[in-house]
Write a structure and sequence with these properties.
Number of helices of chain A: 13
Main location (chain A): membrane
Shape of chain A: globular
Strand content of chain A: under 5%
Helix content of chain A: over 70%
Order of helices and strands of chain B: HHHHEEHHHHHHH
Low-confidence stretches of chain B: none
Shape of chain B: globular
Pfam families (chain A): BPD_transp_2 (PF02653)
Largest sheet of chain A: 2 strands, antiparallel
Helix content of chain B: over 70%
Number of strands of chain A: 2
Membrane topology (chain A): Multi-pass membrane protein
Mean pLDDT of chain A: 85
GO molecular function (chain A): branched-chain amino acid transmembrane transporter activity
Radius of gyration of chain B: 19 Å
Distance between the termini of chain A: 33 Å
Distance between the termini of chain B: 44 Å
Structural class of chain B: mainly alpha
Structural class of chain A: mainly alpha
Oligomer: heterodimer
Radius of gyration of chain A: 20 Å
Order of helices and strands of chain A: HHHHHEEHHHHHHHH
Largest interface: A-B, 46 and 45 residues
Largest sheet of chain B: 2 strands, antiparallel
Subcellular location (chain A): Cell membrane
Strand order of the largest sheet of chain B: 1-2
Low-confidence stretches of chain A: 1-7
Number of strands of chain B: 2
Strand order of the largest sheet of chain A: 1-2
Chain lengths: 331, 293
């Protein structure tokens, strides 16, 4: 596979400055944007985490899940139900249970299937399981059946000494920014740790990884668990943001989203999925008025990216930069 | 009770054969190209729309209906040629993940095109008059159209088996599938054979679209609902094995039909349990094909 940027183990100074500026802008966003655009920015953050979780599996471990929306839905429906029916649990515990629940489901699938099933079997299995989950939800009155789970309240977090009231949009948004930065930082650490290098070794050549003593099946399951848990967390954060969870989030199209975002931004780079999520938000915002058009553009872009630029936007930028600097050297 | 069993059996066989008509092209092209074409259901959907556009909602006779299905097959086969030239050809030597994702994108693209051309509304197409009446079998009424779908599935299966096992074309295809390099050295035009296989697979999807269009409401999502069953059948039967896919389709159809009749409140859940059982018990399918992933 193509591999350029992902293994660079440290951030450059300019990169750190760019991230700090971006985070400051995100924190200030409620004062700069109208509520409609703020909602889109929040969704982009959630989609970024979702795409990063998918790419941990694909870009780093070499496994493709085509039903990742299932994990997202586990987190979203659990959190939605917990807030709606007022479970006597602190919000952080709800988030933790959602993430662990996603990881647990991934573990079960992994133990049953991942040892033998990679590639196409995994693709079909994940699609089928997500469809099965969607069926189960549609039979469950407490989860709103076909109509979805609506009017989810935003949480009030009790920290003992004081309370964090997140019921207002702007407050929940800032909580979302902080949570996203923490999750992204956590994933960055995973990718750049010994564990992340083990995942890369398995992706590059599972047989050789086995020869040097890596338990390939076990690390595939671990990667699947981290990925599933993170996707569930993304779903958990989304439920209070959108305030409604529907079956539209548990199907093929929803599972395409992280794939598209990762490929669009560049799956060979850690930051690619985030760039892709932002780029996709812009595209879908522009094509919103034309029904059918968004599928044509999304599908067309996906095919085009695979055929013309499999390393995505960041890959293209990197190529452009190398070309420019080479020309600079000659002159 | 017996009448209910007969009903479940015939309905199950009919849906099984409908799944097989869609899955046949999918498993065939996988057997030869080793590409799982996720867009197959979308091309089936295009075939159904093309038949609806040419034949209208009330086909005048069975010959018009069959003729329209053949035209749909030819049209989707031609689309297959285009798709092969533009997309699939470039995916032959890359990691299979790229092929999966590119065909996934192709599926979305086709669904979007269908929405743009025909809109998101549902259409209904009637079976031709010769097939649109019930017969009494074992105490229950079965539509002749149901029997016709079962017969068509059997015929398509028999023809594919004959082509693959008894003819010169089938031998060439198996040779190319087993070892493209060696097939090339003995003088077989490998790119041509692969292109022919892709076109045949797409034509099968288009034909299935034409035959099955009276079976259910036509919408841009009709492909997605069929392709899920087709995937399951292909996985249960063994990727690339037509015989395995055929048996798996019948099993899926009957399980689905029994589920819908005896446990209607949990409709559609039994096949997932069945898939899970097969994945654990026989992860490579009933008839594992050589060279699959």
């Amino acid at each position: 596979m193509l591999r350029t940027d992902a293994e660079k183990s440290s951030l450059s100074w300019s990169g750190i400055v760019a991230i700090v500026v971006l985070v400051v802008l995100l924190i200030l966003a409620p004062d700069l944007l109208n509520p409609g655009l703020l909602f889109i920015v929040g969704m982009t953050l959630i989609q970024s985490i979702f795409a990063l979780s998918w790419n941990l599996l694909f870009g780093f471990t070499g496994l493709a899940s085509f039903g990742h929306a299932g994990f997202f839905a586990i987190g979203a429906y659990f959190t939605g139900a917990a807030l709606r029916y007022d479970f006597p649990l602190p919000f952080f515990v709800v988030l933790a249970i959602a993430g662990l629940g996603g990881a647990l489901v991934a573990l079960i699938i992994g133990v049953v299937a991942l040892k033998r099933l990679t590639g196409i079997f995994l693709a079909v299995l994940t699609v089928a399981l997500t469809e099965a989950l969607s069926k189960i939800i549609s039979f469950t009155p407490a989860l709103g059946e076909q109509d979805g789970l609506g009017s989810i309240p935003r949480p009030i977090i009790d920290l003992g000494l004081f309370q964090m009231d997140l019921t207002h949009v702007n407050d929940y948004y800032r909580f979302l920014v902080v949570a996203s930065v923490l999750i992204i930082a956590g994933l960055w650490c995973v990718v750049h740790s010994r564990l992340g290098r083990t995942f890369c070794a398995i992706r590059e050549d599972a047989d050789r990884a086995r020869f040097v003593g890596i338990n390939v099946a076990r690390f595939r399951v671990i990667s699947f668990m981290i990925s599933g848990g993170t996707a569930a967390l993304a779903g958990a954060l989304s439920a209070p943001w959108t305030r409604i969870v529907t079956l539209d989030q548990v199907n093929w199209l929803a599972s395409t989203q992280p794939i598209l975002n990762s490929l669009l931004g560049g799956f060979t780079s850690f930051w690619g999925p985030i760039v892709g999520s932002a780029a996709f938000s812009v595209i879908s915002h522009w094509t919103r008025p034309f029904p059918g058009m968004s599928e044509v553009i999304v599908g067309g872009v996906l095919v085009l990216v695979i055929l013309v630029a499999p390393t995505g936007i960041l890959g293209l930028l990197g190529k452009l930069r190398r070309r420019l600097t080479r020309k600079g050297d000659k002159a | 009770m017996t009448s209910q069993a007969v009903f479940v059996l015939f309905n199950g066989l009919a849906s099984g054969m409908a799944f097989f008509l869609v899955a046949a092209g999918l498993t065939w092209v996988f057997g030869i190209l080793k590409i799982l074409n996720l867009a197959h259901g979308a091309f089936f959907m295009l075939g159904a729309y093309i038949s609806y556009t040419i034949g209208g909602a009330w086909p005048g006779s069975i010959w018009i209906y069959l003729g329209v299905a053949v035209i749909a097959a030819a049209a989707v086969g031609a689309l297959g040629f285009l798709t092969d030239q533009i997309v699939l050809k470039r995916l032959r030597d890359v990691d299979y993940h790229y092929a999966l994702i590119a065909t996934f994108g192709l599926m979305l693209f086709c669904e979007g095109i269908a929405k743009l051309i025909w809109g998101a509304d549902y259409y209904a197409v009637m079976p031709p008059p010769e097939l649109d009446w019930p017969v009494q079998i074992g105490g229950t009424y079965i539509s002749v159209y149901t029997l016709f779908v079962i017969a068509t599935g059997l015929v398509v299966f028999a023809v594919l088996e004959l082509i693959m096992n008894r003819t010169w074309a089938g031998k060439i295809m198996r040779a190319v599938s087993n070892d493209p390099w060696m097939a090339g050295t003995v003088g077989i035009n490998v790119p041509m054979v692969l292109m022919a296989a892709v076109m045949a697979s797409f034509a099968l999807a288009g034909f299935a679209g034409g035959i099955l269009v009276p079976n259910q409401a036509l919408s841009p999502h009709v492909g997605a609902s069929f392709i899920l069953y087709a995937f399951m059948a292909v996985v249960i039967g063994g990727l690339g094995s037509i015989r395995g896919t055929f048996i798996a389709c019948i099993l899926l159809g009957i399980v689905e039909s029994a589920n819908a009749t005896f446990m209607a409140q949990y409709g559609g859940i039994a096949i997932f349990i069945m898939l899970a059982v097969f994945l654990i018990w026989k992860p490579n399918g009933l008839f594992p094909a050589q060279g699959g992933h």
